[in-house]
Amino acid sequence: MRVGYCEDVARMITGLCTNVVPSDVWKIWNNPEYDRRLLQQPHFPQGSPTSPAVANLIAYRLDSRLSGLAKWAGASYSRYADDLLFSGDRDFRRRMDRFRTYVAVIAMEEGFEVNHHKTRIMPQSVCQRATGLVLNKHQNIGRREYDLLKATLHNAVIHGPASQNRTGHADFRSHLLGRINYLAQFNPERANKLREEFQRIRWN
Predict the structure, then answer these.
(1) Which terminus of the chain has fewer Cβ atoms in its 10 Å neighbourhood, N or C?
(2) Per-residue CA distances from 29 to 23, 33, 47 (Å)
(3) Is there a contact between 200 and 193 (Cβ–Cβ < 8 Å)?
(4) What's 201's DSSP letter?
(5) Is 76:68 a contact under the CB 8 Å cutoff?
(6) Could you report the per-residue pLDDT of 104-126, keeping only the tens digit for each?
(7) Can you list the pairs that 139-145 forms with residues at least 24 positions away whose Cβ atoms lie under 8 Å?
(8) Helices 172-184 and 143-159: crossing angle, nearest 10°?
(9) What is the pLDDT of residue 61?
(10) Three-state secondary structure call for residue 76
(11) Which pTM does this prediction carry?
(12) How confident is the model at residue 28 (pLDDT cuts 50, 70, 90)?
């Protein structure tokens, strides 16, 4: 309603984005780590298709303020889900301690809390990894992930794809192609080489 929708539309959108765990589910799956009272009330289900959009709406003010803070400090800011990423030069590194305090204060004022145990400072001399990617010079998947995919494709050519489907994917072909396409977003040249290997696999 704060962004301009009338109450009826706001309630309908809220209904599409929220869920209540049915009582019969608890008879099948009983996990003491979860609070039944909370999950039996309307809530945002984790991992739903609407989650990224809802998260971006909730974090809009946080993103705006942190973007402004980063610009003031001569750095850049980006966020993926609940991972906050800041990058800058050596001058930014020298003000890092003070900058971290500002980030924590802004997050608290916006209803969030920074997990300081997960905060990492990564100079250019180390492997800068975040959100599953290596970020040193440009975004790329890690060497280990690439080598594993390359070996899987090679072994699938020699021994057949069934021998490599150790996790039992119902559509292993689409699974492998999806991993190659994911790599193509960051390193098209390497992805093309793997795609050539993929074409050699016999799927009969």
Answers:
(1) C
(2) 10, 12, 18
(3) no
(4) -
(5) no
(6) 999 999 999 988 888 777 766 55
(7) 139/185, 139/186, 140/186, 140/187, 141/182, 141/183, 141/186, 141/187
(8) 140
(9) 93
(10) strand
(11) 0.61
(12) low
- Is pLDDT above 60 for 180? yes
Segments of the chain assigned E as strands: 76-80, 83-87, 129-130, 133-134, 140-141
Strands 133-134, 129-130: parallel, antiparallel or unpaired by DSSP?
antiparallel
- CA nearest to 63, candidates 79, 40, 47: 79
Q: What is the DSSP string of 167-188?
A: T--TTHHHHHHHHHHHHHTT-H
Helix, coil or strand: residue 136: coil
Residue type, 32: P
Whole-number pLDDT of residue 129: 58
